[in-house]
Amino acid sequence: MTQEDHSLSRRDFLKSSSGAVAGLGMIAGLNSGGAAHAAGGGDQAEPHFTLATMPRIDVHAHIRADWSAIDNYMTLREALKKQLGIEMAMWISLGSSGLPEPPDMAELRTRYGGRIQFCIFDYTIKDGLRYSPQDLLKWQERGVAGFKFYPGWQPDVQIDHPANDPVFAAMDQIRMVAASPHVANPCGTYGRRTEWFAEPVEFWRQQHAWENVLKKYPQLVVVNAHMLWLCYSDEQLDYLRYMLKSYPNLHIDLATTPVFLHAVGRDNLREFIIEHSDRILFGTDVGSSWFVPELDKRLPNVAEKVPQYQRYFDFLETDKELPSGIKDECKMRGLSLPLEVLEKVYFRNAMRVYPHVGEALTRLGYFGGQEAAKKT
Length: 376
Ligand SMILES: [Zn+2]
Description:
Layout: H1 3-22, H2 24-30, E1 55-61, H3 67-84, E2 87-93, H4 105-112, E3 116-118, E4 120-122, H5 133-142, E5 147-149, H6 165-174, E6 178-179, H7 200-216, E7 222-224, H8 234-246, E8 250-253, H9 266-275, E9 280-281, H10 293-298, H11 306-317, E10 321-324, E11 330-333, H12 339-353, H13 357-363, H14 371-374
Parallel strand pairs: 1-2, 2-3, 4-5, 6-7, 7-8, 8-9
Antiparallel strand pairs: 10-11
The chain binds zinc ion.
Zinc ion binds at residues 60, 62, 94, 225, 255, 285, 288.
């Protein structure tokens, strides 16, 4: 894309985003009849889902690659079903401290029927990305869901360094998903800087370095972690609108963001999520200490993390007043999103974006047939 084309797309963005917002009433109206689907939206034979029956996928989990750790997620799954009456169908692990590689992939499929997917990952990219193009191909053949990397908050990290090009080119070519790359960290605005990234010039340098990668590899399928950390003010949310408008293969996950979203206007945020519902995926950061930090301190065992998930579900599905902030010191109101939007965020987008996910959900019986498999 030339520079000229690019500035044109910025202008288009400004024009079209107001039009999209004007159509929101109509989208919300589609939900008034309960589980009605948008007209013409997909396979007519597909069952209609309710909040109780729709499969939910957490695309941003940190699961240790050993069987007892993974078993804890199956216990959590049962607890979520029993206590909240919901169907937590699948987790995608982005790796965890300790073991550097996913578990045996064939054994993983046998034991969990696709409910647990793993990505390969690299958390220290300053010294170059860990995997070569050949490695990526090998891991893709073994069945990983994507490659997670972490430009993170590391000072001076240069994600758009030419040395990374062969890896991004290979990902683009073999369609390996960039699974929740974490760019920068919450920065805040003047007078409200965060402790994680108090230097706004460096924050924006890292954002722009990442944008350079997206510009160079427009076919690369990306689900950026944490709403790209452009979620700490209404102005940042505008910039995120521009990013989603400019890069059609860019998606975002919601991991950890309810902790920070009290700083954004509720109506703006709700309109943003509805407007971009094809590009937003449910994720939590379960397995890290940032999922819901105060609750995580009280309930550190994975199998007991039902209240943490409930916080996310209440935030998306209800208009309850909820605690927010790193110490639960703030308040925010739930977004009460339409059912069609929730379906996309909870599972339809993940089915479209990641390999293996749709196949596994179908095999597990979520779209009719093989009912027995659902009871596992
Ligand atoms: Zn994470």
